[in-house]
Specification:
Elements (H helix, E strand, L loop, with lengths): L1 H22 L4 E12 L4 E12 L2 E14 L3 E9 L5 E11 H6 L6 H13 L8 E10 L13 E9 L6 E13 L1 H4 L8
Length: 196
């Protein structure tokens, strides 16, 4: 079973890489429209999610929270949804679950998608050491770009990050990121021929 999952991860990463390499010439951009941070008050205080627009095609998100107690075991489930014609979000066939403490502990023994997720966590957050976690957690300048995501159809999407403890009943919090895939007008703009 583990070998089957490892092979599936490799094929999915190859497909993501190929899709990204072709999408750079097309001109897509991913803009975060809205973010929501819902934290369990028993574990966190002073929770904030602030979205800061950079330009017409890009915005960044900053998140902060204070841990009330010690967090010894953290699991994260990432699920992607798309908005259909009836304005409802439906699953987009992508759902991953990660044991963050185990990934931070075994830095050399990671599957490809786990490396992909942890590189992003370590780049934009202060989740850069093994468990347990105490004190202040933050994320700075979190954004979505052509390197972070594969090519997606022009549509609205939602990414749900669900954080839980050692048991699924120990709910820590949710982070929702609503974003839109836009065509980068300036990248696709053709130069008009000059009149003779």
């Amino acid at each position: 079973m583990a070998k089957c999952i490892d092979v599936t991860h490799k094929y999915l990463l190859i497909l993501l890489f190929l899709a990204n390499s072709f999408s750079f010439s097309i001109g897509y951009s991913y803009k975060i429209r809205k973010s929501e941070c819902i934290a369990n008050a028993a574990y966190f205080s002073n929770v904030s999610c602030v979205l800061k627009p950079i330009n017409w095609t890009r915005s960044v998100m900053n998140m902060d929270c204070d841990i009330k107690d010690i967090l010894t075991d953290i699991k994260m489930t990432v699920e992607v949804f798309y908005k259909d014609s009836s304005n409802l979000y439906k699953p987009f066939a992508v759902k991953f679950s990660f044991d963050i403490c185990q990934l931070l502990k075994n830095k050399t023994k990671r599957f490809l998608l786990e490396k992909y997720a942890m590189n992003h966590l370590e780049k934009w957050t202060n989740v850069n050491h093994s468990c347990p976690f105490t004190g202040h957690l933050f994320a700075r300048e979190f954004h979505l770009d052509e390197v972070s995501l594969p090519t997606l159809p022009f549509q609205d999407y939602k990414i749900a990050f669900n954080f839980s403890g050692d048991k699924p009943s120990k709910h820590l919090g949710l982070v929702f990121i609503y974003f839109e895939v836009l065509e980068d007008y300036y990248k696709n703009k053709r130069t008009k021929p000059r009149p003779k």
